Write the structure tokens for this entry.
Amino acid sequence: MTSMISQALWIYFYITLIGLIAVSVYGIVVRPNLLKKIIALSILGDTANTFIIFLGFRRGGAAVPIFPSIKPTLEELLWFKETAVDPLPQCLVITAIVINMSVTAFLIALAIQLYRLYGTLDVRKAVRLRG
């Protein structure tokens, strides 16, 4: 019973992530307001990071990726292979979070400059005002 509930929760998590990706892509493509595009892009990046974390997660008794002894036996290596969590997705997500924050700060600076020059954050109006 608990594995069935667990499986249903994982399916719900993935469906929620797909829904968030769809909403953020809609916000990036359809919305003319630059601030809304920046928010949608930030949501897309956070959703992608969450998806990577879900892919790197191991259900069950997950062990820390540290060997229990200096010279492990074959049984310890096999146990480690079956239970250890891969740290690479976590490292990639930390790097992606830093990159996402810097890109968001840069886009906000561009939006502020666009508002100073053209008096609007609407991309369609700014293109018309430019010529």
